[in-house]
Protein 1
Amino acid sequence: MDHQNTAPPSLAIIGDVAVDLVLGPVDGWPAIGTETIMRRSELRAGGSGGNTALAMRHLGAPCRLLSQVGADTFGGWLAGEFSGVDAQLGVAQAATTVSTGVIHTCGERTFFTTKGHLEEQSWAQIRPLVGAAPAPGSIALLTGAFLLPKMREAYGQVIGDLADLGYQIAIDTGWPPEGWTPAIRAATLGWLSRCDHILLNEIEVTGLAEADDLDTALRRLTPLLRPEAVLVAKTGAKGAVAHYGGARFAAAAPQVEVFDTIGAGDSFNAGYLAARLSGLGIQDALAGGCRAASAIINHFPRRAIAPGQLADLVAPAHAGRN
Ligand SMILES: Nc1ncnc2c1ncn2[C@@H]1O[C@H](COP(=O)(O)OP(=O)(O)OP(=O)(O)O)[C@@H](O)[C@H]1O
Ligand SMILES: [Mg+2]
């Protein structure tokens, strides 16, 4: 692989960006035909890939975002939200995917999401934008597999092409809307067996492994992975757990006040990957991921977080303090 000598390893995010309208809180569920007034709302760039790119910006860590937006007003607005990120966002011939997230007083949320442009995004359109990894150790993060049907059809090729371009591969599949059917499990296990950083949440890991508890699931999945792969399970307010090389790592989530946890997992991914790219080990990166997620979900509105405002959270100075 022809790497430029001076560039540091960096992150390329290949996945989903969409528009999120987050509003709430609402107590109970309204009757059809009524109107409910809510105290807070925020229109923000979202999608798993979009959330991770913005979290990298909050952390002052460079990244590339390779994705698409829809051919409408929201698409133009969305593209403008990634200033400061090296974003290459093509235009898909469809309306931009929009997700309305209703926050409930209990902390749960309900999403209404349109299919929109994510259905059109394909590897053929993204592949020419990627280019060789800028340095050894660079990571490509794949997000939103189950929301990107055309990309997902080509995932075997996506992973092969990215490896050929010199990237380590990180993946956050998200939850499959159709559930962990045998076909979805087989396809997912095939992808994961070729990845280096697997960033799932607890119920995704247990669902994929058909296990009743997290540790059983992690033990069941690890032998199916590359020996050098890190398997991370995000465990919500508890923090995160990882398995690597027969060892178990865990980090606790700093407890913070939260209006909505939308994008918590994606923010964790940014903290974890930024830490790994800066040379930190698994324990420090898990803790960095938890610190990043807590700090970001503690902010409302999220758009008020300035670029680099959270840079200290994954700085090497934190290493060894976990
Ligand atoms: N209530 C919370 N308080 C503090 N930290 C939290 C809370 N919820 C989530 N986190 C942090 O965010 C990380 C990711 O959360 P979670 O395990 O819910 O992932 P996820 O389900 O993939 O999230 P997402 O819904 O964004 O996909 C956790 O590892 C933790 O560090
Ligand atoms: Mg997630």
Protein 2
Amino acid sequence: MSETKITIIGAGLSGLMSAYLLQKKGYEVTILEADTRSGGRIETLTGATGATMEMGATWFSKPHQNLIALLEEFNIPYFKQHTQGISLFETMSFVPPQKFEISDAEEPSYRIVGGTAKLIEKLVQEVGIQNIITNSKVTSIKEMDGYLEITTADGITSKASKVISTLPPHLLVQTIGFEPQLPESIEKLAKKTHTWMGESIKFSVEYATPFWRTNNYSGTLFSQASIIQEMYDHSTFDHNGYALKGFLNGGTHALSREERKEKVMLQLTKLFGTEANNYVDYHEKVWRDEPLTFFPYEQLLMGHENNGHPNYKNIFLNGKLFISGSETASQNPGYMEGSIVAAKEIAAQFLKKIK
Ligand SMILES: Cc1cc2nc3c(=O)[nH]c(=O)nc-3n(C[C@H](O)[C@H](O)[C@H](O)COP(=O)(O)OP(=O)(O)OC[C@H]3O[C@@H](n4cnc5c(N)ncnc54)[C@H](O)[C@@H]3O)c2cc1C
């Protein structure tokens, strides 16, 4: 088996970035992706009005230097999150919200023009669509004499000299079988490694006009009192589409979509008046219902628990299996920046020079 044949599991930001870097070093890379699409926890939805809405990763800021450098390398523009105007903080359901303004001196967050999926599209183009096999859910990995045998849910097997997993570590050990088994210590660690945002619920309400801006609201809301816990203006950079978007209370995953939507619209009309009811569409994504991201934990984990643990730098199955993905990065694990850092750390472990 050629030492340059690598299989990457997962076509999220980590998997695509790892492929991009390893191809540059002369490796032959195949990505196996269980879903019908690339992107993983990055998913930009385009609504009827043309508004692009992030159901997954959205924001980054200046400390995320590896991500910013990649966007600059690819000429992908980004812009500041809109925060001008009155922001709201609901402490209790029976008192009016507190009003405040976010100072221009605050460290801004940025969004990608056209949506975070622009970065995924560019990486897919760079890596080559022919090297990304979608609808390929890896179910087991077996160590053979000098290579690894990878089996997918449809029973297809393939061989690789090295395998890089980019699944969140917890999902990896809960959903892929290994022969021989992985060391107990890494299994235990992975079961206690939190998958960032795995339990979250994202929502977006699409509008024909940004009525909140006209009424001098920023669209920013923090609430301890109702279903929407955090919300921001989600208008597009070119003002082609308008939306309010944020996170719902994760506990409401047990409700139906209609029940959540009703509560969201009630909260928005209470805060912004009846204009809020003139929405074009309501969108949501319950990430804990996504089996390619989330697997229930055996015990309660704190956000980012064990993210970036140094034991993820070990190599398994006699130097053939690498455990990567954002949650393993030594800097900013769990975030898009972490995905890029993790990919760079993996690429650095492959010593072959650029051809
Ligand atoms: C709601 C939400 C909001 C977020 N907001 C932000 C934000 O604002 N800023 C930020 O920086 N980050 C944010 N994040 C985190 C960010 O999305 C992740 O850090 C990043 O996308 C992780 O990329 P990854 O490639 O490491 O993992 P993933 O994106 O999880 O990729 C793993 C891939 O593996 C695939 N897969 C799973 N099982 C198998 C299998 N058995 N076989 C083959 N393929 C498999 C999955 O389908 C997926 O494509 C957010 C995440 C979510 C969910």
